[in-house]
Amino acid sequence: MQTQSKFRLLVVRLGAMGDILHALPAVTALRKAHPSWVIDWVIEPRWRALLSAPQASARDATLQPIVDRLHFASTKDWRRKPLSSGTLQQIRQLRSGLREGHYDVVLDLQGSIRSAILGRMAGARRRIGEAEPRERPAHWFFTERVATRGAHVIEQDVELASAIAGDALEPVQPILPVDPDAEAWAESLLGPSSQPIVLINPGAGWGAKRWPPARYGLVARSLALRGLRILVNAGPGEVALAGEIVQHSGGMASVLAPSLEQLIAVTRRVALVIAGDTGPLHLACALGKPVVGIYGPTDPSRNGPFGSPLRVLRHPESRRDHSRHDAPEAGLLTIQPEDVLRAANELLYPEASA
């Protein structure tokens, strides 16, 4: 076991939302096992609310529960203007900040070429990653390659984290920051009512993963008629999609367009989340909320709901396909509103379903 009191670890997981949430159980397990360690993280700026509330300037038990320091890598912006003076300056600043960290180990939980390059920039003697990373050439940047055996990406990340100090870690419930302003906003929005809230998230990374909005609308209407309050989360560029669901619900749902901090605060207060394979579904799992996952071209055994009360709906003939088609996958379309409602009832009223 590692006994060094100020052992310094750098985690590299840039994005996206669901992927960072999948990495959190492993890093939370490390924080619990080694509270004296310095744990820093390289992340895309847009996802900082998953690790640190904006008010946090140093590690705080509430505002910044897992990490000591965040390093920001705006890699998406850099790709658009790779040779601009602004991009080059930001990369130099990042490299300087990483070198100042004097890290003992870099833990690459992304497995891409860009994450591996950023990890190498830190100058750590040990760089740990998967033996078979998502982008195969990335493994040449690792000094230690771990052959993972877990089916789910959360289990795989825990295996990687266990290799740092020889721990036998297990996935643990992640700890997310508590942003006071966002919590106050959610309290004001939702009020003191005891009416259970269901959060629907219809968006997804590409069309093949998106269940039809008309079907979400029927689910929303049915649940609202049973006395539940229905919110439809609209991510960036999804307000029209959320509005379409409200229309199909007969106006019995409401559109919610929160910031990420606000989405975390609202999700803490809901009774159930219904969504496809998308970040807000994994956020609900990270917060221990019951979820109904509607899956098509992505494999829930690898990146489905994990660790919370759950029901996953997926046609047995659906196959894993990340080719980003626009039209909903054929197997996804076999899932009917009554299937989702049955799963929702089992989670909302477990005594009646027993």
**Beta strands, count:** 12
- The best one-word shape is globular
Which class of the largest domain in CATH terms? Alpha Beta
Number of domains as seen in the coordinates: 2
Our measurement of the CA-to-CA distance between the termini, rounded to an integer number of angstroms, reads: 45 Å
One letter per element, helices H and strands E, the order comes to EHEEHHEHEEHHEHEHEHEHEHEHH
CATH fold field value of the largest domain: Rossmann fold
What percent of the residues sit in helical stretches (DSSP H or I)? 25-40%
Q: Could you report the average pLDDT, rounded to the nearest whole number?
A: 94
The CATH H-level superfamily of the largest domain is Glycogen Phosphorylase B
The CATH architecture name of the largest domain reads 3-Layer(aba) Sandwich
**Rg, Cα atoms, Å:** 21 Å
β-strand percent reads 5-15%
Structural class: alpha/beta
* Total number of helices: 13
Low-confidence stretches: none
Please give the largest β-sheet.
6 strands, parallel
Main attributes?
Rossmann fold, 6-stranded parallel sheet, 2 domains, 13 helices, alpha/beta
Please provide a written account of the structure.
The chain has 354 residues and is of the alpha/beta class. The chain has two domains: 8-165, 3-Layer(aba) Sandwich (Rossmann fold); 180-353, Glycogen Phosphorylase B (Rossmann fold). It contains 13 helices and twelve strands. Helix 7 links the parallel strand 7 (197-201) and strand 8.
